[in-house]
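Researcher: Please predict.
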Amino acid sequence: MKLYQAAQWVSILTHPIWIQIAMINLFAYDWQTKVIVWLIAGALPILCYFLCLKGIALQWCTLFEGRIIVIAVNLICLFVAMQWLNNPSSQLLPLRYLLITQGVVLMVNLWYLSSLHLSGWGFLFSLAYLLNPSLPLWNMLLWFASFFLIGWARWYLSAHTILQLFIGLLCGAIPPWLLYGLEKL
């Protein structure tokens, strides 16, 4: 029972919505903008998540449809929040990468269930190394340990298979590298 509770806590604390909220708050300069953007890109997707995946709306849609709705609402909210920030394009580069990566995750999830948790953390890992390629080796080992811990929690809760976890990690980690490479051409 204690392992199950530990896995639940790991799953809650590593939910990808926290990454999105933290990243958007990095680009909002005054507290009014932070509050508005947090409501758009944080509170609305969380509300949608609980409505679609935690039972209230499941009487109207399947779990698969609810998952797709959550990802689509999240994409729309992120796009609206980026427009609200109204920063120069170069400052919003990480948020553009996040938006495109979530679009890739949505397309993959239309055909095959993948781990949103690991796609979010894979994205964050790629972005960290793109923005600071001189990060030390111990930092990379810490990332791999976190991937293992999150993957174990999602597998232990029977939320995903090993293949779904791996595909989720790749869906989050590869698009930022491709986008970065395309921008350097």
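Model: The two ends are 52 Å apart (CA to CA).
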